[in-house]
Amino acid sequence: MEMINLTINNIPLTVKKGTRIIEAAREIGIDIPHLCYHPDQNIKAHCRMCVVEVVGNRKLLAACSTQVWEGMEVHTDTKKVRDTQVGVLEMILADHNQDCLSCARNGNCDLQKLCSRFNLIKPELTPVAKKPMVQDLNPSLVRDLSKCVKCGRCVKACQDVQGVAALSYTGRSEHFMVTTAYNEPLENTDCVLCGQCSTVCPVGAIVEKDDTDKVWEALHDPSKHVIVQVAPSVRVALGDDFNMPKGSIVTGQMVTALRMIGFDKVFDTNFAADVTIMEEGTELIKRINEGGVLPMITSCSPGWVNYMEKHHSSKIAHLSTAKSPQQMFGALSKSYYAMMADIDPKDIVTVSIMPCVAKKFEAARPEMEHNGHRDVDIVLTTRELIKMIKYVGLNFAKLPKTDFDSPLGYGTGAGAIFGTTGGVMEAALRTVSEVYAHSPLPSLEFTPARGNEGIKEAEVTLGNQTIKIAMAHGLRNAEIIMREIEEGTSEYTFIEIMACPGGCIGGGGQPISGTTEVKMLRQDALYDIDKGQAIRKSHENPDVTKLYEAFLGEPLSEKSHELLHTHYQAQFKRSSENA
User: Fold this and answer.
1) What Å distances lie between residue 461 and 25, 293, 393, 437, 450, CA to CA?
2) In angstroms, rounded to a whole number, what is the distance separating the alpha carbons of residues 74 and 21?
3) Per-residue confidence (pLDDT) for residue 319, from 0 to 100
4) How confident is the model at residue 578 (pLDDT cuts 50, 70, 90)?
5) Rounded Cα gap, residues 577 and 579, in angstroms
6) Class of domain 129-208
7) What letter does residue 225 receive in the DSSP assignment?
8) For residue 54, which phi and psi values (nearest 5 degrees)?
9) CATH class assigned to 3-89
């Protein structure tokens, strides 16, 4: 590997050839101001906040797009650099709706941080910002075009990572803007509401729809029994906003916080993940044995289901009919739990804490109800839970650890790894291979399912036959899989697809700091949770066994189908043909 010698602010350093100035500066503890740059994205060089002075060049250079060269002399703090950066920042502010106090990103906004850094208290340019231009008719995301700083991060996430391209650019010069096709609301486009745009937006132009007020209202209603379930990946991301090391496992503190907020019962979605494995695993074996539609594809990622319904509706039969763990829990909370606790289902309010904004859309689907009761009443993202914890004033890191409540509070290690790419497949194989095929895996750690490759595949022996499986995360990778199915060239029997990069650990509702490096720390934490559990197979969960014995009968029973399975249908998809 060729190495390059240079100096930054007269500090000598050596870096690999191809390193950009902004990356080299970080190696010696210098954070060059930036707005459009994101470490997980291709270079855009839109904002020009990162300009630096390089000896021998008359013009300032963008640190995010300029690679170092031998003998380069970089200065990041000259008067020329500062004056230029202040000028750029003032122009961005002049065209930005500055209602910071009422903005969802107040206190966690890159533009705010830059203004504080440059002590920009009284900008000199006359504001030309548009009035609030809010689009909030879908259950998941809110857009405000008046806050967009045109950095292009959301476009890169939507086009390059997800391959959906619901967001793009239009116009030139002062009319340049980020928009959708024909400036339609997100719900009228190819958007699948995965929320990846919201995790990279540096300001409040795209944020999750805030439903915390609905939860407070329920908690303050004495006639309601308010329960909450928490997804596996939330417990390894929640600590990010409380000055804890990235990837910290905060399960115990999280349960305590939810009780202190006022929930009557705190349950674990991992329990429902174990139930999902029982239903989905049985469905897979039935399809294999009875000639059902193969490959069967997991249906627990709502962003992925939305993508399937909009982009590949002719192949919906490949989706498992099993509801997601969130919805299974909801259905059981209004039936099994209501019966066990002797509470009228109409008095139960079921709240979900999820890493995903698409879960809000999923819970709102008309088919996600039973006997007139919604499976899940309110969905909050990890970010919304953070707001609630801060509102109550809890010192989260110092809270004592407590356990989930019963009978829906115990989840196995298999349920925990649902939160990462490959985890659903690994959990399913632990049960399918042992219970249904009578051929236990050689090791519980199914390494072909692990790692961060976009598409992973493997062969697995189930009884007297060998099947080929695949796991994909990120919708651009899912598209590759779907093309093979549509062309009739797919050799897979079972496929796991997660809409978000990394799976739920990188969900669209997770803390904003979710770079690839952070996601890998969360992934490792989930595997640590799995390894530390006494029970690591879904079918060995004693509470799940009791559920089937006392209530459901067996997987795919009539009652299971009634409560835990659903159907999907084509959604509107904008294209050049129907535009």
Assistant:
1) 50, 20, 52, 9, 18
2) 8
3) 98
4) very low
5) 6
6) alpha beta
7) E
8) -120, 125
9) alpha beta
Give the separation between CA 318 and CA 427, rounded to whole angstroms.
20
Alpha carbon 555 to chain centroid distance? 29
Q: Cα–Cα distance between 501 and 516 in angstroms, integer? A: 8
- What confidence tens digit (pLDDT) does each residue in 446-503 have? 999 999 999 999 999 988 889 999 999 999 999 999 999 999 999 999 999 999 999 9
Contact 515, 39 (CB under 8 A): yes
CATH 3.40.50.1780 domain span(s) along the chain: 212-564
DSSP label at residue 210: P
Q: In terms of Cα–Cα distance, which of 303, 306, 302, 361 is closest to 138? A: 361
Peptide bond into 39 cis (omega under 30): no
Give the pair of three-digit tokens for residue 53: 């002075």
Q: Name the pLDDT band for 577 (thresholds 50, 70, 90).
A: very low
Positions of CATH 3.30.70.20 in the chain: 129-208
Q: What are the phi and psi torsion angles at 89 (to 5°)?
A: -65, -40
Helix, coil or strand: residue 343: coil
Interacting residues of 338 by C-beta distance below 8 A, sequence separation 6+: 344, 345, 348
Give the angle subtended at the CA of 71 by the CAs of 70 and 75, to the nearest 5°: 120
Q: What is the pLDDT of residues 201-220, one digit of tens each?
A: 999 999 999 999 999 999 99
Cβ–Cβ < 8 Å for 512, 106: no
pLDDT digits (tens, 9 = 90+) for 89-113: 999 999 999 999 999 999 999 999 9
- According to CATH, the topology of domain 212-564 is Rossmann fold (3.40.50)
- In the chain, where does the domain assigned CATH 3.10.20.740 lie? 3-89
End-to-end CA distance of the chain: 50
For residue 145, the tally of other CB atoms under 10 A from its CB is 18
- What's the rounded mean pLDDT across residues 321-349? 98
Q: How confident is the model at residue 171 (pLDDT cuts 50, 70, 90)?
A: confident
Q: What is the pLDDT of residues 212-243, one digit of tens each?
A: 999 999 999 999 999 999 999 999 999 999 99
Q: What is the dihedral of CA 307, 310, 313, 318, to 10 degrees?
A: 10
- Which residues are annotated as catalytic? 280, 283, 300, 320, 359, 362, 367, 504
Place of tokens 């294209």: 575
Q: How far is CA 339 from CA 333, 342, 421, 547, in A?
A: 9, 5, 35, 12
Residue recorded with tokens 């100035």: 21
**Which tens digit of pLDDT belongs to each residue from 39-82?**
999 999 999 999 999 999 999 999 999 999 999 999 999 999 99
